[in-house]
Amino acid sequence: MAKTEVILTTNIVGLGGESDQVRVAAGYARNYLYPHRLAIPVTQANKRHLEALKQRRAEREAHEFNHMTELSKSLTKLILVIKVKTGDDGKLFGSVTNGTIADELKTQFEIVLDKKKIKLEHSIRTLGEYEVELNLHAEVKGTLKVRVESINPVATPVEAPAEDKYRTEKRGKRTEGETAEAPAEGKAKGEKKPKAEKKA
Q1: Mean pLDDT in residue range 159-177
Q2: Is 92:125 a contact under the CB 8 Å cutoff?
Q3: Which residues fall within 8 angstroms of residue 56, CB to CB, at 6 or more apart?
Q4: What contacts 15, CB < 8 A, 6 or more positions away?
Q5: Average pLDDT, integer, range 51-67
Q6: CATH code for 3-68?
Q7: In degrees, to the nearest 5, what angle opens at C-alpha 132 toward C-alphas 60 and 63?
Q8: Burial of residue 146 (number of CB atoms within 10 Å: 0-12, 13-18, 19+)
Q9: E strands along 56-198, which residues?
Q10: Which of 122, 146, 127, 129 has the alpha carbon at shortest distance from 88?
Q11: Which of 56, 68, 156, 197 could form an SS bridge with 140, CB 3.0 to 4.6 Å?
C-alpha cells in the first residue's frame, strides 16, 4: 500500500496534532484528509505554513491548559448528587458510570465534560459518597465528589411499631386499664337512668 506524507491542519485522535508531519495511506489522504481539509500535502509551499500551524497549536494548547486548570479548581468545590432507584436493601438498580456522571454534570451545572476524562475503576453500585478522579488534560488532574442517593423513601424501623399501635386501636382491642374502667362506666350510667325516669 502506497504511503504519503502529510501535514495535519487539525488534531486527529490516534494520528497526531496540528502541524505534525505524518505518514498515512495515499488513499486515506486523497479520499478523506484532503477533502475535509484535515491535512495538506508536504510541499515546499506548504512547509512555509508549518510555522503558522505550530503557533496556532501552541495557542490552542495553552488555552486548553488554562481552561482545564480553572475547571479542575471549580469541580473540586462541587458535590454532584446523583439520585437513583434502589431496592429495599439499598442496592442500586443498575450502576453509576462515567457516562452517567458526565450527563449529570451537564444537567446540574451545565459543564460539558467528555466521559473519557472521568476515571472510574469500577462503576458505582452502592449508595454513598465517592471521590472520582478526573484526567482533564495531560498535565491537569482533578477530583470530583459524587454523592449517590436513593429516590425511594427509606423505611425506618421506628415507623413499624407506630403502625402496629394504630392497627390495634382500629381493631378495638382494649388494654387492661380500659377493661377495668368499662364496668364502672356501666354502673354510673345505670345509676343515672333511674334519676331520668323519676324526672319524667
Answers
A1: 52
A2: yes
A3: 18, 19
A4: 8, 22, 24
A5: 87
A6: 3.40.5.10
A7: 10
A8: buried
A9: 79-84, 91-96, 118-119, 124-126, 128-137, 140-150
A10: 127
A11: 68
Q: 144 is written with which cell numbers? A: 470530583
Whether 8 contacts 15, CB under 8 Å: yes
Pick the CATH number of 70-150 from 3.10.180.10, 3.10.430.100, 3.40.630.30, 3.40.50.10860: 3.10.430.100
pLDDT in tens, 62-77: 998 999 999 999 999 9
Element (H, E) at 165: helix 159-171
Q: How far apart are CA 94 and CA 123, in angstroms?
A: 9
Confidence band, pLDDT 50/70/90 cuts, at residue 159: very low
- Amino acid, res. 108: Q
pLDDT of residue 148 exceeding 90, the answer is yes
Q: Provide, for the chain, the percentages of residues in helix, strand and coil under a 3-state DSSP scheme, each rounded to the nearest 5.
A: 45, 30, 25
Domain residue ranges in the chain: 3-68, 70-150
The structure's pTM equals: 0.57
Question: What would the grid cell of residue 69 be?
Answer: 486548570
